[in-house]
Structures
1.
Amino acid sequence: MVKKELSETEIAESIPDLWQPLTDAQRDYLAQNFTIQKYKKNETIYCEGETPKHLMCLLKGKVKIYKDGVGGRSQIIRVIKDKEYFAYRAYFANENFVTAAAAFEPCTICLIPMTCIVKLLEENAQLGLFFIRQLSIDLGISDERTVSLTQKHIRGRLAESLLFLKDTYGVEEDQCTLSIYLSREDLANLSNMTTSNAIRTLSNFASEKLITIDGRKIKLIDEEKLKKISKIG
């Protein structure tokens, strides 16, 4: 972990939602406890079973939250984008991590000790509302994905995952190519299917001219048809 001296303006730009409700004294306290950590591509950020100690906010890069299941097969629970907070739920629940996190690509993450966050929460009701709101949003997304990944057929699950990645990370300048390049294994783990099924279904989508594939680059050609496939499951 690297202690990086940042101006309060830089910190405010890094964690605007967390910074905004604080008083000047609370901002000074947070700035004193603000640290930066860089992670390499595929590097583990935290492991299942570890004791949570920090609130994390992704400043740059892409992160996956996942859980290893039966037979060592992973399930990607959710993905994290810029300025999104994670790794704090387990601390509030007084338990160890039930998931793991790893970097999809090189990442820069800010870490704030949970003891610091708790102190600020005790002093600032608006900050408490912020965390209630964040946890509620995450729970809603989790509920939706649980139903989708258990009830939809393979085509519906993969179509939904492609649209989910577009909504989360956006597209490149051509307005079609997903701005995240996942391995087939990660795409399968996100869609609750085997890697072979993901490869076959991607090929079928390409044959139907719904997408085009160039290595790990995926371009969405017929988004409306993908939405229909996702909806009907």
2.
Amino acid sequence: MIRVVLVDDQELVRAGFTMVLDAQPDIEVVGEAGDGAAAVELLRSTTADVVLMDVRMPRMDGIEATRRIVAAGGPKVVILTTFDLDEYAFAAIKAGAGGFLLKDAGPAQLIEAIRAVHSGDAVVAPSTTKRLLDRFALHLPDEERAAPGALETLTEREREVLLQVARGLSNAEIAECLYVSEATVKTHMGRILMKLNLRDRVQAVVFAYETGLVKSGQSGRG
């Protein structure tokens, strides 16, 4: 059973998510909170696997709450955002969130995202992450960018894989593009995360933007 905590200051939003999630045989909503401070307090006494975290909330926003949850070794955090995109959501990813989920996502996308992050995969489709980061890259100050020299620790093939991940390709699509097996792509991805000391695929995409490997607005496919 996948245990989920919902954090959003709109009770109607939480109620809608709860109806969708509790209808699934493998997902259970184990708690709700109306702001970040309440979420942090709730997770001290509630065991959860995934937190769906809104960004803009009273008392404590989703960024600070995410930072505290991650620092405490808590569950994975998925940021809830609108397609208009809070400029704060990128900061939340930097604070340790595992990815994005659009607030207007359909039930199937919501369920898929939760199951994916629970199993350790990408939180949302890489192409969605890429589109969002295209927008966030415009707000990334130069002083916060990672040193391009960090890329030198990667082999040429690992850099190719990282580039394709940042462009929004799935492992299967990367395998087809580079004429290797999907298992080989997964192996390269594991080495990339280890060498760059990154948690997951989403952080790898952020890293690619920060180092300038991928530029904002750069074509994702082809």
